[in-house]
Amino acid sequence: MNFFDRLHDRIVAADSVVSVGLDPDPARLPEVVRDADLPRWQFNRRIIDATHEHAACYKPNAAFYEDPDGWRALRETIAYAHGKDVPVLLDAKRGDIGNTARQYATILDEDHGPAADAITVNPFLGRDSLEPFLQHEEKGVFVLGRTSNPGGADLQDLELASGEKLYERVVHLADLWNDNGNVGLVVGATAPEELEEIRELVPDIPFLVPGVGAQGGDAEAAVEYGLADGVGLVNSSRGIIFAGEDSEARGGSPEQFFEAAGQSAKRLETRLNQFR
Ligand SMILES: O=c1ccn([C@@H]2O[C@H](COP(=O)(O)O)[C@@H](O)[C@H]2O)c(=O)[nH]1
């Protein structure tokens, strides 16, 4: 089954377009998991327990797992999320020359354990660098379009000789690369005007919209323009998973830490659903 069909089913089942970002910064993990075997996995397990009813998807960022224990934690996390019927989008922003890209894309294969259902990729090296990902027909491939960071404009807003902006060209190419119907776009909620414009350019491609929550992006625009036929994802990472930090600082219990994550996910779900 195609990733976007599966995502559609999950969005309907959970009545949510919330992507919960699993970015377990070791410096911010609560005391209760710090001395555990695989702290990041123990943290994610509790976050998933607290948030899965509100999650259309989990989005671990590979940056938080790129060491031997991290990869184990990631595999455990993917399996656990799947056990709750929630798909997993690995935010890895991959993109390299052909033979290297083919190796990177093996992360989507199930040969060595549970694998993510979708991945983010960087289009800077062009089509051949993304081909090995696109060929995984059943997996979602989210191409960076217009990112949410302040420096996103440095290159992405550059005007080409054709008069197009670079991000517009990327969006056009992503549409061309969508032979298997498995391409999505990453468009930040901090760039609401670009979100609206990109939606006009590609009415049928679902977006992953990061940047609400800690980055202060526009939640209404994220929903209004992020969804294609009701399918798309609005991500918050730190705003959900570390929502319990204040309670921990005030001496709250571990249960309260994770309850706060559940409440934060629910609040975001409710807010986004107002605009769906
Ligand atoms: O344009 C982009 C692309 C990816 N991200 C990633 O999303 C999360 C956002 O985390 P918050 O804590 O909700 O700010 C993180 O993994 C980023 O690397 C993005 O923010 N913007």
Automatic annotation (TrEMBL):
Keywords in alphabetical order: Decarboxylase, Lyase, Pyrimidine biosynthesis
GO process annotations (BP): 'de novo' pyrimidine nucleobase biosynthetic process; 'de novo' UMP biosynthetic process
InterPro entries, per database record: Aldolase_TIM, OMPdecase_AS, OMPdecase_type-2, OMPdeCOase_dom, RibuloseP-bd_barrel
Protein EC: 4.1.1.23
Family: Belongs to the OMP decarboxylase family. Type 2 subfamily.
Keyword Protease: no
GO MF assignments: orotidine-5'-phosphate decarboxylase activity
Listed SMART domains: OMPdecase
Active site: 93
Gene for this chain: pyrF
Biological or metabolic pathway of the protein: Pyrimidine metabolism; UMP biosynthesis via de novo pathway; UMP from orotate: step 2/2
Species of origin: Haloarcula rubra
Stated name of the protein: Orotidine 5'-phosphate decarboxylase
Orotidine 5'-phosphate decarboxylase domain mapped to chain residues: 17-253
Chemical reaction(s) catalysed: orotidine 5'-phosphate + H(+) = UMP + CO2
One Pfam family per UniProt: OMPdecase
